[in-house]
Design a protein that fits this description.
With about 600 residues, the protein is of the alpha+beta class. Helix content is about 25%, strand content about 25%. An eight-stranded mixed beta sheet has the order 1-2-4-3-9-12-10-11, sandwiched between helices. Strands 15-16-21-18-19 form a five-stranded antiparallel beta sheet.
């Protein structure tokens, strides 16, 4: 059909004195699926309980569990809610531990693949253990509130959740099982030659006293050291700077507890593993000489490969949340400055969620990875956004200032740490200095904070951390796109031709296709369609002016099936007009990867 004819069709409406608006029938957007009604007659529990009623599954949220306990908690939830939660093994770790994804979905309202999905993971670094519990808490909160809380019920009925509690199950298992400090067991467990001596994992930390914690070593050398005991607290060493008066300290600080296992003059330089699975993703990946821990090539480790395969197989994933620790951060990309800026429309959606996050998470800051933290090449959440166009956050769980409430200045330095430990933990977090024999240094002392101090909160503050962070992920899930079809209108243009106008509306913050996805042409574009027996579609396109129906970007081909690379914007509309001939029932519909399909039936007379 020529452009002249198409403009003539549009002009027919303008010429008509009284366009005939036909009655329309607008059924519910998802007539096929019946949600489970919210139950209001069950006995209510203490109002402060997140579930609002006695939970089916009682979990102690004031402690952290090892590898087996993490899966045991989730398996309890599967047993209690089999109609909503299921499990699949997507792969195995280096040490052959299962990589489990738990799918939270109400199959009565549709398959998980037909709904927008939220991916939530944790514990990519083995020592960042509370990420696993945050994933469990998110599942527990959604399940226990389903049928009691209307918003949660609607969210679960209309969305799916893919939950992977441990990206690095081997690292987590080692952190609980073996002697570590707060920062070790970060890596996976594939043997790696960190010091390039041809040997693998031969010089890790050594637990000299066998207490299960890797602390610090110090040696008493009267008048020959560079530290002295703090006059107010002998557990603390104060640095003695070089000076012209010849004043020296009495102690040497010798570093982390261990010995020189391979005789190369260094201590603890080649521990188990020694790589970083959060530097191994395809987006902005760089080799080892640029990004330490990146491995030989992207997705080299089996843990990352099976996750990538799952994510790529689930194009309905519309949001990603990855839980790490620590520092109190809500992070988004870019991971490196050289990437440039994200598209403005996507930044607006990120900022909307980030602003909510800062209010929901006291002491946390919404930050850009490269600008506000450090450069990360090959990061997971930069891959899911920059390569796949999915809105993605990393939360760094726990900020030490939370120990001090609204007086964070009280916790500055070692003295503040000891004050908190002494007054609120009765000293349980610190290994007091005590003598041991060292094969190189002779008699020394070892002491310091235990491995579960610093990067994870004290037990009495774990639940608040989990709740706030899990609810931020659920807020993210609530922001996934939701499509409605509104303002339908059928106008008789004369000569047997009618114009059908509808507004396709995204009611939520996250667009159906991010600007990044459109820019990269990642995934399939959205589709606006019309069909009906007895209806011939002559032309169709997107209106560019809501008040001037003749201004329209007409499709060059297949007018009954309009492709929209840019999708539906954040809380925005797209106005579509079709020119048709014939009468009868017509169905207009929207379909896309990141939201539930929507349709509307019209009488065309």
């Amino acid at each position: 059909m020529s452009t002249v004819i198409l403009f003539a069709l549009a002009a027919l409406q303008t010429a008509a004195q009284k366009p005939a608006q036909q009655p329309v029938q607008q059924p519910a957007q998802q007539p096929a699926a019946q949600a489970t009604p919210v139950q209001h007659n069950e006995p209510q529990g203490f109002p402060g309980l997140p579930a609002g009623a006695k939970p089916k599954v009682e979990i102690a949220w004031n402690r952290l569990g090892d590898y087996d306990e993490v899966y045991a908690h989730l398996d309890q939830l599967v047993a209690a809610y089999p109609q909503l939660l299921s499990m699949q093994v997507i792969g195995h770790s280096i040490e052959n531990r299962e990589m489990r994804v738990y799918t939270l979905n109400n199959s009565a309202t549709g398959a998980d693949s037909t709904k927008p999905a939220m991916w939530i993971d944790g514990n990519v670094h083995g020592n960042e253990v509370q990420g696993g519990e945050a994933v469990i808490y998110a599942a527990w909160y959604l399940l226990e509130n389903y049928g009691h809380n209307e918003r949660i019920t609607q969210l679960v009925d209309g969305s799916a959740f893919y939950l992977l509690p441990m990206v690095n199950p081997d690292g987590r298992a080692s952190w609980f099982r073996d002697a570590h400090n707060a920062h070790s067991s970060r890596s996976g467990r594939q043997p790696t030659d960190d010091d390039n001596d041809g040997l693998y994992d031969e010089d890790g930390p050594d637990d000299l006293d066998g207490d299960g914690d890797i602390v610090q070593m110090r040696k008493y050398v009267p008048g020959q050291g560079n530290y002295r005991l703090n006059p107010d607290d002998p557990r603390i060493l104060d640095f003695v700077a070089p000076n012209d008066r010849g004043i020296r300290g009495d102690w040497l600080l010798l570093g982390s507890e261990g010995i020189d296992n391979d005789g190369d003059g260094r201590i603890n330089e080649d521990p188990a593993g020694g790589y970083d699975m959060n530097r191994a993703w395809p987006a902005m990946w760089e080799p080892e000489h640029v990004q330490n821990g990146a491995g030989p090539y992207p997705l080299y480790w089996p843990e990352t490969r099976c996750i990538a395969r799952f994510v790529l197989d689930h194009s309905n994933i519309a949001g990603v949340q990855s839980f790490h620790n620590a520092g109190g951060m809500i992070l988004r990309g870019p991971g490196a400055q050289v990437f440039g800026e994200y598209p403005r429309a996507d930044i607006a959606a990120y900022d909307d969620l980030g602003a909510d996050g800062e209010k929901m998470l006291p002491f946390y800051r919404y930050m850009i990875i490269w600008r506000d933290l450090y450069s990360v090449f090959g990061g997971f959440v930069t891959w899911t956004y920059e390569s796949l166009g999915i809105m993605s956050f990393t939360n760094e769980l726990w900020n030490g200032d939370q120990n001090w409430g609204n007086r964070p200045e009280a916790g500055n330095g070692d003295q503040g740490d000891h004050f908190f430990d002494d007054r609120l933990l009765f000293g349980a977090g610190f290994v007091n200095w005590h003598k041991v024999q060292h094969p190189l240094y002779g008699e020394i002392e070892v002491g310091g904070f235990r491995k579960d101090v610093g990067r994870v909160p004290p037990t009495f503050m774990i639940e608040e951390m989990l709740h706030r962070n899990a609810l931020f992920a659920i807020r993210h899930a609530e922001a996934m796109p939701k499509v409605a079809i509104v303002e339908p209108q059928v106008t008789d243009l004369g000569g047997g031709v009618r114009a059908i106008d509808v507004v396709f509306r995204n009611e939520h913050v996250i667009p159906t296709r991010t600007a990044r996805a459109a820019e990269m042409k990642v995934g399939e574009p959205d589709v606006f369609s019309i069909e009906g027996a007895g209806i011939e579609v002559l032309a169709g396109g997107v209106r560019t002016d809501r008040f001037r129906p003749e201004r329209i970007e007409l499709a060059e081909r297949e007018p009954a099936r309009l492709l929209a690379e840019r999708g539906l914007p954040s809380r925005g509309d797209v106005r579509v007009r079709w020119f048709v001939r014939g009468t009868g029932k017509a169905t207009v519909a929207w379909h896309g990867a990141k939201a539930r399909a929507a349709s509307l039936s019209l009488d065309v007379k």
